[in-house]
Amino acid sequence: MSIAKVFSRARIGIDAPLITVEAHVSNGLPAVTLVGLPETAVRESRDRVRAAILSSGFEFPPRRLTINLAPADLPKEGARFDLAIAIAILAVTGQIPLTEGQALSTYEFLGELSLDGGLRPVTGALPAAIGARDHERTLVIPPSSAAEVAVINEVRALTASHLTAVVAHLAGQEALAPVRSEIRSVPDPAIDGDLSDVKGQPRAKRALAIAAAGAHNLLLIGPPGAGKSMLAQRLPGILPPMTEAEAIEAAKIASVSSAGFDPARFGVRAFRAPHHSASSVALIGGGSNPKPGEISLAHHAVLFLDELPEFDRKVLEALREPLENGHITISRAAQQAEFPARFQLIAAMNPSPQGTEIHSLAAQRYRAKLSGPLLDRIDMHLEIPRVSASALSQPADPETAGSATIREQVVRARAAMLDRQGMPNAFLPPRSLSTVAALSTADQHFLNQALEKLKLSGRARDRILKVARTIADLDQKPQIDTAALSEAMGYRNLDRLFNGTGAT
């Protein structure tokens, strides 16, 4: 055999495109040439693979060796191709005695080789396992990646801890351990805190339920210590359970991130709370090899931005596009990657730098850090008052609805939305509002007057209608009535405050 072909998987965004690793050996001075747009870590694999092959007791061919990673126009990064390159070299030099019925074309290989031939994990094992399964091939991975890929159904994967174990399996000497799909029980969504822990704030709890049901973005404004962060942290506990498709998509994003994917968090909606010093790349994603940012790690989950005006304005403005589209495209000279970013934004801020002043010049300048277009994309603005000391000292009211009770109402309302239009109300396109969120003549006149008085934009009008539709769904009403419309407009009453600052 002068040419051998094996398969592996690259990483582009959250996808794992197929890579064909070809090895060709010919007479000539001993040399190894690696082609196919490899980056630094891939080029260094020549030395790792050579050491791993020799340490494992195999022979490294003293001839001219050419390794091609196809397709040639796709950048290759990381050490994920080490195992596939080693198998291709051993196959082309006849050191893998394949048994009858065994064919390298039925396998895909993923893993970094240590110098002694051991296998180390790489990022993005989950998308690679999904790709291999969909193409009816078996993926060979390090054991430490087994728990990550076991979350998918009908997984086709084997684990190997050493290069010799892979060769022994292909030679029919000792079978590798298969990975079994595991059905994990999802932990209590309110494990990080129950809404009944929050004393007082009945209007804020109501707003939180509306935001959860309709997937609406929410801005909480109030003095320090009013409970804004505490309320936001309890939002994941009342959100509807993730569907399997949502859980897989969120797990794929985590799998390709620097932190990796924790299988224990499969099916759990994330709560991402980056510090206000976060850069645009940290929030949106980026890098020479694009990786997901906080908005993608909060996909189908919650992104909490505390002290919103303290974020750099350019960073906040970068949120406008993903808030509308639900995805972010990161373009680099060598490649372009798209990451999903359908997150629910919960933001919190003080009304002024001092925390309590509202009408001072400093307070106006503080609020002016937020642009009008960004505020337009936040469906609900809610003022959070300080809870009195006497209320805080009172024991918890047993009649207060907890997260489980509110979650039942949210799930019922969300199911009504999905039955009616196939999506949460926050994602309704403007053309659907005339039918889904139709108003009576009197209510339409009432809304028009409010828009003129508050100087609200057309986008703000759409937000009001979507929130009103969600309120009607929560209250199990077939149509938006005056009460639902008034309540929805009450969640925009801070527009007057912001418009007075001159924000545009």
UniProtKB/TrEMBL annotation:
GO molecular function ontology, one term from the record: DNA binding
The entry's keywords: ATP-binding, Hydrolase, Nucleotide-binding, Protease
InterPro entries on file: AAA+_ATPase (IPR003593), CHLI-like (IPR045006), MCM_dom (IPR001208), Mg_chelat-rel (IPR004482), Mg_chelat-rel_C (IPR025158), Mg_chelatse_chII-like_cat_dom (IPR000523), P-loop_NTPase (IPR027417), Ribosomal_Su5_D2-typ_SF (IPR020568)
Domain MCM C-terminal AAA(+) ATPase: 293-380
Biological process terms in GO annotation: proteolysis
Entry-linked SMART domains: AAA
NCBIfam families in the cross-refs: PRK09862.1 (NF007365), YifB family Mg chelatase-like AAA ATPase (TIGR00368)
Annotated family: Belongs to the Mg-chelatase subunits D/I family. ComM subfamily.
Protein name per the record: ATP-dependent protease
